[in-house]
Write a structure and sequence with these properties.
By secondary structure, the chain is of the alpha/beta class. Helix content is 50%, strand content 13%.
Length: 135
């Protein structure tokens, strides 16, 4: 089954935080092509690593070593993420969160996140995706 990683799940692995073992076990059961990250979430991860002081080369090496396939943010996902805004506003989900969910919905995937608030989302609004909290 396809796995879509939220930036929080990727960062948990990179910083060896609680839940990182859950993420590692999930993506090790899949091959590289089935572990996806939206380009929007890659931008979030890069921003966080840059904020922590990593050089561009170190960031590039870190991402290259992480088993994933980056997926361009499509107009279809843009529409889904935009419509999700009205349904997720009470939960204060970012555009990155909604981009991740949109990819998960489009791919009918398992979506891994460290953001517990996603557990409160209405399953009817995220049809096709299965959200799993890593913590």
């Amino acid at each position: 089954m396809t796995i879509v990683l939220d930036s929080s799940a990727v960062l948990a692995v990179l910083f060896n935080e609680t839940g990182s073992d859950y993420v590692k076990a999930a993506y090790q059961d899949e091959d590289f092509e089935n572990t996806l990250i939206s380009a929007v979430n890659v931008a979030e991860v890069v921003g966080k690593l840059a904020h922590k002081g990593m050089t561009n080369d170190a960031i590039a090496q870190t991402l290259a070593a992480f088993p994933h396939r980056c997926v361009a943010f499509s107009s279809e996902e843009g529409m889904i993420a935009g419509v999700l805004f009205r349904h997720t506003k009470p939960h204060d989900l970012s555009i990155g969160d909604r981009a991740c969910l949109a990819l998960g919905m489009r791919m009918k995937a398992r979506v891994l996140t460290a953001d517990r608030i996603w557990g409160e989302l209405d399953a009817d609004r995220i049809r096709g995706a299965t959200v799993e909290s890593i913590r």
